[in-house]
Amino acid sequence: MLGLVKGLGVTLKNMTKPKVTYRYPDEPLLMPNRFRGIQHFDPEKCIVCNQCARICPTDCITLSGKKQPEKKGKVIDTYTINFETCILCDLCTEVCPTGAITMTNNYELAVYSRDELFKDLEWLNQNNTHIREEQSGNVAKRHGGKQ
Ligand code: SF4
Ligand code: SF4
What we know:
- This protein is an alpha+beta fold.
- It has helices at 2-15, 51-55, 91-95, 121-126, 133-142; strands at 40-41, 61-67, 74-82, 101-102, 118-119.
- The protein is elongated and about 85 Å long.
- It binds iron/sulfur cluster (2 copies).
């Protein structure tokens, strides 16, 4: 009987404590600002310099550009990241001179087929929520406040 009362006491005491669990996936988990999540890609900012693809340690970025009529340089045509092998190391976003590729705080990548882990330009562009503020700050600093 004493054990039962003791047990109930512990239960009642813990019922009044703040919750340490989350209702995930019903309520999304918000990650801290320096979290390295799935990248956002902005084709308007990309100058097709290839630096992100060159530095990628797992060779998971594939991109191509096309010539613009009557303009210098290229515009981005295709841009794909293979999330089978991307280790979200942040190097591509660190080297990007224009901030075209930035990390977000998004992390959900579960899919039923491995093919779906190849995310193309449109998908990466639409991944535009929770863009990491710290990254934007670094790019702004690198360009004297301009992005
Ligand atoms: S986060 Fe790292 S592994 Fe992923 S695409 Fe960028 S450089 Fe490659
Ligand atoms: S480093 Fe930036 S600007 Fe250069 S190709 Fe990659 S995303 Fe485009």
